[in-house]
Fold this protein.
Amino acid sequence: MASDQESLSNIAASRPDDEMAMASEAAEVISHLLGDRRSTLDPSIEIWTSEAAENLRARIEDDPIFGGSMGQWNKLDIQLTDAPREVVLLAAELVFLREIPILEARPETRKSHVEMVLSHLDEEHPFPPNLLQSFDRPSGTAGFRAGRGYNGNMWLHLIWASTFVRYWNSLEDDAQNQARQDPWALQRVMLECGDDQADIRNAFQFLFRPDVFEPIASTATKIRVRDGLAEWIGMPAGNDPASVDRDLLTARGALTAEFDGEFGFWYDGVQELWDDSVNDTESDETSDPDEDTPRSRHYWLFSPGSQASEWDAFSSEGIMALGWDIGDLAQFPDRASIRKALDIHGTGASMTNDVLALWQFQNEIEIGDVIYAKKGRKQFVGRGEVTSVAKFEPDRADYRHVRTVAWTHKGEWENPENGPLKTLTDITQLSGYVEELEDLFGEDSEPRLIPSRGDLPTYSRDDFLEEVFVSDDDYDRLASLLKRKKNIILSGPPGVGKTFAAKRLAYSIMGFKDTARTQMVQFHQSYSYEDFMMGYRPNEEGGFRLEKGPFYRFCEEARADDSKRPYFFIIDEINRGNISKIFGELLMLIEADKRGQELRLLYKDELFSIPANLHIIGMMNTADRSIAVLDYALRRRFGFFSMHPAFDTAGFAQWQAEVDDSKFDVLVDVVARLNKDIANDLALGQGFAIGHSYLTRPASGNHDESWMRSIIDDELIPLLNEYWFDEPEKVENWTKNLRAVLG
């Protein structure tokens, strides 16, 4: 029992403080919901009653407003017309609960939604202090990332929540008392109340019992995290809600033995344990098929056996090596085949870290990469540079997967960070950490991302026009705009190849595919000046260190080079970030005529300028409903270039001829007609059109019927369900049209 109690205590201590604080903001509302039924906004009135809940449900579910001419909040505004006071308060407090855990939601947006509902009362109603505290919490502090499904399903959430309230009031006192005390009994009540609406139920579960449930709305994401951590919890119990949540609780308990203090499943060092894509830097828009592009030097953490048990042997032989006796790694074409070879008992476990280590050792490490040999999480025993490709040496007793390494340093050094447990970790993107390690080993210069192999392949205007579906005139206008303004934004709907075009625009101006002179970051709602430029970060001693961000470092690299050699800093989703907060004093310095002018930095007593040979290319997704409108200050400093679906260009026509499939031709025609319907929709418009990248070259190279079917069923139809979530007849009509292409 003491052991169980200790485990529960460790789990409680591992919960991030900001998430627990966020959940506490909802505690009073929830206590009334499950208890005396009174309103938190007006304690003189009962709102959590069957009658009020049924009234709210009927207003939304029995009297729906279809069509895309108005948004869901406008529709709710109409549906609450002349609603009784208790129904308005009920709706307001449900909206409050729904909005609290959305990570990206701005506090003013959350507050405005509640205020819109309360505007149906005859008098203004002040918020109590605990609710006001919630509205002071900035976005990006705690909670889950709400996708389009969660954001667009407010009306379904209110229907489900009303149904839950009505069902709760129908329970006997004993059943209610059990649910108040037992989180699994509470979950059963939620599942039994009616048709399940998993995303809002998951949100409510967390708010009701943050000590047990994770702040994850998507069931698919929960299962993905759980499956990725299978080696920590054993065989998954099942995919029903209770089994998945119990497995996640077990996983958290197991991880507390390895991670000191609080952590979430998206924390550095934890996400890598379950998420294969952490080390995957490919764009979601368009994959880059070029294999001849030299990639930059990478930096790796490597464990030479448990607690560096093999270090003496490896360092004396001049090698790094991995175990896992599954034969020559060169025989495995993908990660799935490695996973299958490792899972000799057919358990179905993901073995994410083992698979990733073997795949990266064989396929991603390159000659010239830097290896830091570590002992556990807190000590290094060496540094070296890779000097050979991967080899399989079957005559070795064990550790048969081998690369030769020139070990430049041997000894003992304290790790300035609390390192990951994995056998092999690519830390290239952690530039501040890499710089610390290079300083630790006495390297004189900051780590530069220099090409690690071969001569740079040339890349010309003609190469760009062959790969990117734009006209000659558009390319000339785009290149001229970038050279003149220094900063441009490529805007357009998803699938028009913005990322693909941005990289190739840079290559065409450089004349080479030089990845050392390009760098990419992605903005999001919680991205800050400290992430972008520089800021203080906590260290292991409990203090703080000043760490340079990617833009600062890239400016320094461009400044150190020949001023005639252009550099390109690429920003994906540029309009997702708070531009003024991210750029700070740099907003003036990025202007073309201000290049070279100096300003004193916010965090450092240093005059700083942006070199004239540095260019900024931003990408803006016009179909993202959650993004903010760009302010005038940014628009004045950037040139804008709109990218559109290129089905009618010569480049796409050449690709279509290469496919040479009548069904593909019909599919292109259907998508073109679909885009016209999207463009004519007042709630969507041209910015939501379907881009040509959906129908361009597949990663497998096989443009067959199964590829087309996957595009239709797995990409286009789900997209239409998001676009027209409140117009099911339109979705059904276009679904039939798309599926009819293949018969």
About this structure: The longest strand covers residues 401-414. Residues 105 and 139 are 6 Å apart (CA to CA). The two ends are 62 Å apart (CA to CA).
